[in-house]
Amino acid sequence: MKKRYLVLENGSIYEGEAFGADVDVMAELVFNTGMSGYQESITDLSYRGEMIVFTYPLIGNYGVNRDDFESLRPAASAIVVHEIARRPSNWRQMMSLPEWAEKSGMPGISGVDTRALTKELRDFGVMKAALADEVNEETLSALKNFQLSKTMVADATTKTQYQNPTDGVSIALIDFGLKNSILRSLAKRGANVMVFPADVAAETVLAANPDGILLSNGPGDPQDAAYAIPTIQALEEKVPLMGICLGHQLFALANGAETYKLKFGHRGFNHAVRHLSKERLDFTSQNHGYAVDRDSLANTDLVVTHEEINDHTVEGLRLKNHHAFSVQFHPDAAPGPHDAEYLFDDFLTMIADAKKETTQNA
């Protein structure tokens, strides 16, 4: 097997074996604690610009299938695993993970002590890293000068408007790096979904006469997509709105709150979140490196609805006097537990209530 090296910006070097595409990459190194769902994670556009360390020791044991893609190609820059499965077995599989990685242009490294690597990331925080076939002064110099992209949402969003038509309630979905599972969750509820690019103007969205607005997940720093804030501010005044993940952070920014970068983020499918008013606990799927600053909410019209039980970060918000809310986690949960899928139903109920109010006030 060909050797490959993982080089961290703090100087650590991990040696392993190459698989997937034969290319060198640089990206932000993050870890994912999920025990399964590697295909959905790798194709989740929220991972754009990131290299994923899978903490579960065996990855690829059920191959890759046609149904579990969250986008058409790998979103992650590379993957780091302890062991890559040599003989995957599943009745749905099309090919092995290494075969698909090679065909799709994504490099990987196996044979890494991912437990030690994750501990290092927890101590130092997420870091820039390089995946290379050899380590020299040029590699180290390039990594030192490497800058994370500021255009990840612009690169991830749809370039054209499109529709997933039904005769149900009409949802305008602004795509900041959309997961296919959000579309599946809405389709299951009979919603007529119109998808718009991240930089769409509010007038364009309102011209489609939607019943509700959904702000999708996406990659990177929410401040880099601040151009969407005026659109969100205009839309929430007129139409019921729901935000997910990056959409949650942008919703917060649009209403006067602030965001900050977490030391190593939340990435996995077992994060316990407390719904404060309902006094219920949900296990959730999460993938984010930024969070809403609770202290910044004091002079806003935002109310905290959910919080993470371990670090008490803000996981949900509601806007006073408007039909608008957001959550940091993924209620579509692909992969992950379906505890919070009811939030899509709450969104549709909110839309129905808003229509009744409009009719009564007419």
Key words describing this protein structure:
10-stranded mixed beta sheet, 10 helices, globular, alpha/beta, 7-stranded mixed beta barrel, 25% helix, single chain, 362 residues
What does the average pLDDT come to? 95
In spatial order, strands of the major sheet run: 10-12-11-13-14-19-18-17-15-16
Question: Could you give the distance between the termini?
Answer: 72 Å
What overall geometry do the principal axes of the alpha carbons give? globular
C-alpha-based Rg, rounded: 21 Å
Q: What class, by secondary structure content?
A: alpha/beta
Strand tally is 19
Portion in beta strands: 25-35%
Query: What is the H/E order?
Result: EEEHEEEEHEHEHHEEHEHEHEHEEEEEH
Question: What layout of secondary structure does this protein have?
Answer:
Elements: E1 3-8, E2 13-20, E3 25-32, H1 38-42, E4 50-54, E5 58-59, E6 78-80, E7 83-84, H2 97-104, E8 107-110, H3 114-124, E9 127-132, H4 137-145, H5 152-156, E10 162-164, E11 170-174, H6 180-188, E12 192-196, H7 202-207, E13 212-215, H8 229-236, E14 241-244, H9 246-254, E15 259-275, E16 280-292, E17 302-308, E18 314-319, E19 324-327, H10 342-361
Parallel strand pairs: 3-4, 4-6, 5-7, 6-8, 11-12, 11-13, 13-14, 14-19
Antiparallel strand pairs: 1-2, 1-9, 2-8, 3-9, 10-12, 15-16, 15-17, 17-18, 18-19
